[in-house]
Amino acid sequence: MHPKQRLENHFLEQRRVQFDFSQTPEHWIYDNPFATHLINAVHLILPVGELWMCRSFNEALPYVTDEKLRADVKGFVHQEAHHASAHKVAQDYLRYYGYEIDEFISSLDMIFKQLNTSPLGLVLSKKLEYRWLTIRVGMASAVEHFTTMLGTWCLNDKPWQNKTADEIMSDLMTWHLAEEVEHRSVAFDLYMHLCGEENKILAYLQRQMIMMAVAPVFTLSIYQCFKKLAQQDKQAKSYSSYGLIRALGQTVIENARTNQVPSFLAVFFSLRHWIKPNYHPYFEGDTMKALQVLENSPAVKSLSKLRVC
Asked: What pLDDT score was predicted for residue 1?
């Protein structure tokens, strides 16, 4: 366990918030179909991806000997499971506006199933099964690096404030990204714990190789989800013809113009932290800022009122 994380003395809480998108417009980031569909891409990929993480972390729990880390892993799983549930509700919002997404989501689910305990259906020895589990947790850690970066951007820049976007969907995204910042260290700490103190060099080299695979797949997956949505929206048809490079370039333009989407360049350059031998997610975000944002979330406030009642 990294000493800095212990100093936080913070335990993760599952906030069982609810969101009602019945009044949310199709383009919830007003007058910006590109930004709406790029952010909406997470509704397609995150539920299957986060539930995959939950399964992997639950498999890892028997190997965790540190009690604080065990509590953190359990808290992480509870938070990620509820993120998946919330984004499934957002999928219904997309279906309401006529978006055909079920077949696409099923294909994503099949891909993640190939990355479970028996990758591609292979039967592994106990030793290789443990190594594959370590790699899966490392993959989760790589993804969490990006969600931490996105969460920090959201908390600092407040991209959907000042009546530029639907308050309910903005609350969902802000709540989710704030919790990503809150639990940013868990996947990395679990990965290092599974690798063992005596294998730090191997752990470092392995996580660099993992990121070399995860970064392009993560980027391409978000792009494919965005394209699937843009193809079905008459107001965004022009964006559906964008190739990957042009779409990434558009994020840079849109970030400079409205700051309603993160810039791909900022995401890419965040990797300069990951490659450092002394990298730790603790230094990549601000827990207190995340907690302050969560306390001011309308959905979290509603939950607090229900508890009082």
From this structure: 46
